[in-house]
Design brief:
The protein is elongated, with a radius of gyration of 21 Å. The protein folds into two domains: 69 residues, Orthogonal Bundle (Arc Repressor Mutant, subunit A), CATH 1.10.10; 138 residues, GntR ligand-binding domain-like (Four Helix Bundle (Hemerythrin (Met), subunit A), Up-down Bundle). A two-stranded antiparallel sheet has the order 1-2. The two termini are 28 Å apart. The protein is 69% helix and 3% strand. The protein is mainly alpha-helical.
Length: 235
């Protein structure tokens, strides 16, 4: 069960999961307020606040006389941390595919820019994250490795000097955690990932833009291959 801190969080999570799992179809109204509040065991006020939160994520639309309806998936904010988290359990294969395609579109350009713009603080952050990855690689639990891997890629996006890339990296933490956790599960995957990450950090440090772009593309392609082979997603 989710460790909810507040009733509001629990209601948002329950409704969000129902919508993402297709239990309420797009353009269909939610049950009437009294019925839904009683079903969830909350007050109407708590339900209304949850509906507002989901509307802010692009998932619901409330109008007078027509009630509250689920919006099509195309209108959802798919970079929202909660929406990403719900999709991990609803359609993990689709989410992993989307993450891979987004990384291919963004990270090679971010690496190219980083090689020309990164300052000492940026490269230091990348090498510190790399050191944490290397330290965690020998441990049986992968949580620390995945956390360090996320920090490395976040540092790369920050090093690009493009503030939108940096913000995108922070928004994608949940998705990257999901992707890295899966791609790191096959035997030898963690050890094999370390040399290309070092090559990327060094290319950024020494201003070699073409090498940096090629290095991150190799990392992405390797991750996609590991995900395809992962026991977490058998064919």
């Amino acid at each position: 069960m989710e460790p909810y801190r507040t009733m509001h969080q629990r209601v948002v999570d329950e409704l969000g999961r129902r919508i993402v799992n297709g239990l309420v179809e797009p353009d269909r109204p939610l049950p009437v307020e009294d019925t839904l509040a009683a079903e969830l065991g909350v007050s109407r006020g708590a339900l209304r606040e949850a509906v507002k939160a989901l509307a802010a994520k692009g998932m619901l639309l409330t109008r007078p006389r027509t009630g509250t309806r689920v919006l099509p998936r195309e209108q959802w904010n798919h970079l929202d941390r909660d929406v990403l988290r719900w999709q991990q359990t609803s359609d993990p294969r689709r989410l992993l595919r989307d993450i891979g395609e987004l990384r291919r579109a963004v990270e090679p350009e971010a690496a190219r820019l980083a090689a020309g713009r990164a300052g000492p603080g940026h490269t230091r952050a990348m090498f510190e994250a790399l050191a944490a990855m290397e330290s965690a690689a020998s441990r049986p639990e992968l949580d620390e490795y995945v956390e360090a891997d996320i920090a490395f890629h976040r540092a790369l996006l920050d090093a690009s000097g493009n503030r939108l890339f940096g913000s995108l990296g922070r928004a994608l933490d949940v998705a990257l955690e999901h992707s890295f956790a899966v791609s790191s599960q096959t035997p030898g995957a963690v050890e094999a990932s370390l040399p290309p990450h070092r090559a990327l950090a060094e290319a950024v440090e020494y201003g070699r833009s073409a090498e940096a772009s090629a290095a991150i593309l190799a990392i992405i392609e390797s991750a996609e291959q590991e995900i395809a082979r992962s026991m977490a997603f058998p064919a």
